[in-house]
TrEMBL record:
Coiled-coil boundaries: none
Protein name from the UniProt record: VOC family protein
PANTHER family for the chain: BLR2408 PROTEIN, BLR2520 PROTEIN
Pfam families noted in UniProt: Glyoxalase
Domain annotation VOC: ranges: 1-125
Gene3D superfamilies per record: 2,3-Dihydroxybiphenyl 1,2-Dioxygenase, domain 1
InterPro entries per record: Glyas_Bleomycin-R_OHBP_Dase, Glyas_Fos-R_dOase_dom, VOC_core
Record organism: Ravibacter arvi
Amino acid sequence: MIWANLAVDNLERTTKFYTDLGFKPNGAPNEQLTSFIMGENDFIIHFFRKEVLQSNMNMVVSDAHSAAEILFTLSADSQKQVDDWADEVVKAGGKMLSQPEAFGAGYYGFMFADPDGHRYNVFYM
């Protein structure tokens, strides 16, 4: 198994954002983390309060608003689905880093950041 652990400032805001985007909760949130299942292969991302993750890792966690820690890619089935994702991201409170656009031969997508700066690419090819 493999999963991701990311730092957040506000668990309630994070829970609302990913719930609004339609991701399935991975158990109930608690005072330390909220967790979601992403995609058909059940990839899990745990969102820990920043101070909890820093303490557990015994290191400083980067500020995702100012430095890219990772770029997750979410696969889309069509250009329309990419456009629909863009609308949902904005409604849920995400920050658009680029608008949906075609690039290269047969590629279409955009980038966004969640409220804590974690970056995603929604991509159709």
